[in-house]
Structure formats: C-alpha cells, structure tokens
Amino acid sequence: MAAPEQNKTPLEETEPEPRPRDTPEDISLEAAANTVAFHPCRDVLAAGDVDGDVYLYSYSCLEGGNKELWSSGHHLKSCREVSFSHDGQKLFTVSKDKSIHILSVEEGRLVTRFSKAHNSALNSLLVIDEHLFATGDDRGELKVWDLRKGTSIMEMKQHEEYISDMAVDGNKKLLLTTSGDGTMGVFNIRRRRFELLSEPQNGDLSAIALMKRGKKVACGSSEGTIYLFNWDGFGATSDRFALKAESIDCMVPVTESIVCTGCTDGVIRAVNILPNRVIGSVGQHVGEPIEQLAKCHTGPFLASCAHDQKVKFWDISSLNSVIVDDYRKKKKKSGQLKSLSHKAFGTGEDFFAGLREEAAEPKDEDSSGTETDSD
Predict the structure, then answer these.
(1) d(CA 47, CA 322)
(2) DSSP 241
(3) Which of 40, 139, 163, 360 has the highest local Cβ count within 10 Å?
(4) Residue 164 is assigned to a structural domain of this protein
C-alpha cells in the first residue's frame, strides 16, 4: 500500500532586505522647519518647526531607515534654532516665545527652562562650550549664559536689528555676530565686553562662517553677496563676492576653503573662498526658501530644511577633493551651474540644466583670486 502523500507547504515569503541608498531619505514634518542640527557623534538629527515643535530622528542610508525618536511641543511659538551640547547629551532650543529650553537627548524631557530669557523673540543660538552658550534676539540684544550659575553673565545691545547668526573662534575668546542692520559685531567673551561693529554693508548680514583656518570670516547677505573680513581686521571688508543669487539665508563651512550657502531661490551652492568661485550646486528645495543647513559630524552629509516641510540630505563627500585654481588663470566658459549631486530630478549634468549662473569677476583693487589656500 502506497504511503499517503504529505501536504506540501508553500515557501514562506521573506521580506526583502532594505535597499541601500547614497543618502538618507527625506524627513517630512507637519509644518515648515526653521532649523536642523546633527548630533556630534551619533546618526541622530534634530529639527524645529514654525509651530514650536522639536523632533529628534535617527537616520540611515537604508530604505525606511529613518525613525522618529521623540517629539516635544514645549514651545508656544515658532522654534527658531536647535543645537546639541558638545557631549551630545542635551539639546538647546530657542523660540519666538522668548524662551530657552534645554532637553535631554535620550528622552526629550525638559531639563532646564529660561521662560523670559529676552525681552524680544529669540532668533539665534550658539553653544560655546560645556558651560557657556549665547543667544540673540529680534531687537539686536546678545546674551551669554553660564549653566553653572543658571543665569546670563553678559548682556549687550549693540545691533539695531535682529541678530541672525553667531560664530566663535577656536580659543572661545571672541564671539562674532551678524545682524539685520548690515553689521558684524565682535564681543570678547573672556573679558565680557563689546569690541567693535564693522562698517554697515548693503542689506542684512544673514549668516557667518570662519574660513581658512580662522584667518578669514565670511558673511552672507540678503543681497546675495558674501563679504570677507580678515581676522583682527573686523572694521572693514577685505573682499566681496556676488553670487548672482537671491538672498543668502544660511551658510555652513564644509572645508577650510569651501562653504555651502542656502538661498531664497531654494538652491544650495558650494562656493570656494579665495579664489572666489561658485563650484556648483549640491541640491535644492524646488522654489522653497532654505532656512538652515547643517554639516554631519559622522558622515559625508549636508542636511537642509525649507518651507516645503522637509529635511533633505545631500552627499558632499566630493567637495573634500575639490581644488580651485586662481580664477584669473582658469575661467569657466560655461554659464551653467554645475550639478554636484545626481540626486533629485535626474542624473549627472541635467540636474540643474535650467539654472544659469556666472561667478562674479574679482575687482582689480581687491585680493580676489590672488590668495591661495596656503595662506
């Protein structure tokens, strides 16, 4: 007698492994994001939006790899800036509601609150070291805070308009500010005193970055111009460079010579400083003004946030090997803005085929194009 036929079970369907990507997927928020920041040592990113909400995400270069870790709705009005502490354990946030919040990164729990930190809406934030941080408001007041004392240790109002951005030198001695009044401010943190204001420039000064190993200061403006200052020569600009773009709203240094700028036209440009030249475009938020850029500490990524309610990631690893020769010796013939990323609307050179831009010629009387990276 033949043995009974055994029932055959179909092969179990296995889920396909997540596909690897060049960059993490976009993060979509419920409202337009004002600010974005990378964790100093983990693949974690924070963002704040116009509703006052703060989000913490882990990100990955795998399909579906991004995960929301927590969100916080402590602020009553728009969250203007977020920044991690240097050890990565705390997240600082400032808001239009005039408050400063310090949250625990692990849980999103509110650790410290300064309810009425300023008399006006807060606009900018800079973590200086493990104890000190600085804040600037819409009316031009600057405050430096000491967490050990739980209060501000320096309060000064030298700007006539909002403080847009801040930077500090490697020795944590001089704090530099940019303002809507068109000036750059210099403050001595150690001596707790005001040093000077630069000559006013055309339009608002909207962003600041230290370049050339701290020997140059680059300031972006609402006129689409980058103004350059020599270190210890803060009173007047040493050079200027017009991008022929709309307002530069944010900028972040990528190398000692290359800075990425985010503009109102939605394009992220990589710009070489001295010699001054637009290298190309890293990416864009189509037709949406870019609010902030952040450079990743653990990978070759740039993050951007804009009015399209998205945080996007861009691969900027190619910029580390870019060498720009003297502009007067080598002038690019094509007026097309070169694509530095194959992400988004196509691949290769057709990415920004519709965008036309020519780098501005340096003036004869200034030093554009004559200084080399060895300076």
Answers:
(1) 30
(2) E
(3) 163
(4) yes
Q: Which CA distances in Å does 66 have to 24, 175, 305, 344?
A: 7, 35, 16, 18
Task: Look up residue 348 and give its two tokens.
Answer: 């290769």
Dihedral sign, Cα of residue 84, residue 187, residue 250, residue 135: positive
Q: Examine residue 233 and state whether it is found in any structural domain, yes or no.
A: yes
Residues 6+ apart with CB under 8 A from 175: 126, 128, 134, 142, 144, 166, 167, 168, 186, 187, 188, 189
Instruction: Report CA dihedral (254, 257, 263, 267) to the nearest 10 degrees.
Output: -70
Between CA 332 and CA 337, with CA 334 as vertex, the angle to 5 degrees is 95
Interatomic CA distance for residues 91 and 125, integer angstroms: 11
* 129-156 pLDDT tens trace: 999 999 999 999 999 999 999 999 999 9
* CATH assignment at residue 84: 2.130.10.10
Number of H helices, E strands in the chain: 0, 28
Domain count across the chain:
1
**pLDDT one-digit tens code per residue, 337-352:** 787 776 633 333 333 4
Residue 12 tokens read as 């179990």
Q: How far apart are CA 193 and CA 158, in angstroms?
A: 11
Model confidence over 153-167: pLDDT tens digits? 999 999 999 999 999
- The amino acid that residue 358 corresponds to is E
Please indicate, yes or no, if residue 343 is contained in any of the structural domains: no
Distance CA 54, CA 340 (A): 31
Residue 145 placed within a domain:
yes
Query: How many Cβ atoms are within 10 Å of 13's Cβ, its own excluded?
Result: 6
- Helix, strand, coil: what percent of the chain each, to 5? 0, 45, 55
DSSP string across 26-39: PEE-SS-EEEEEE-
Provide the residue range defining the domain that includes 72.
Answer: 31-256+292-320
DSSP H or E run through 120:
none
Q: Which of 163, 171, 34, 24 is nearest to 95 (CA)?
A: 34
